Description:
Helix content is 38%, strand content 26%. The protein is an alpha+beta fold. It has a single domain, classed as YaeB-like fold, CATH 3.30.2310. A four-stranded antiparallel sheet has the order 1-2-3-4. The longest helix is centred in the middle third of the chain and has 14 residues. It starts with a helix and ends with a strand.
Amino acid sequence: MKINKQKIIDNICYTELVYARINKKLKLELSKSEIEAYLLKVLKATEISFYTKIGKNYYITNEVNTIRITVNSNTFRIITVDKI
C-alpha cells in the first residue's frame, strides 16, 4: 500500500494530552502552536521513504531532527514523538 504523505500532512490533528507528552519526551517547553508548527515543518521536510506504516500507525522518522513521529493511520492523530 502506498503512503500518501500529503494526506497525512493535510489531516494531522492533536489531542490535548499529546502536547504535554511531546514536550516531556523531547525535553522542550513549546506552546501548542509552536509544537504544531514544528511537527508540520518536520513532516513536510521528511522524505516519503522515511514514512512507514506498521499495523494501525504511521511512523515518520526524521534523522536530521532525530525524532520519530507516531500517527494513527485512521484518525491522523499524533500519538507521540520520540527521540531517536
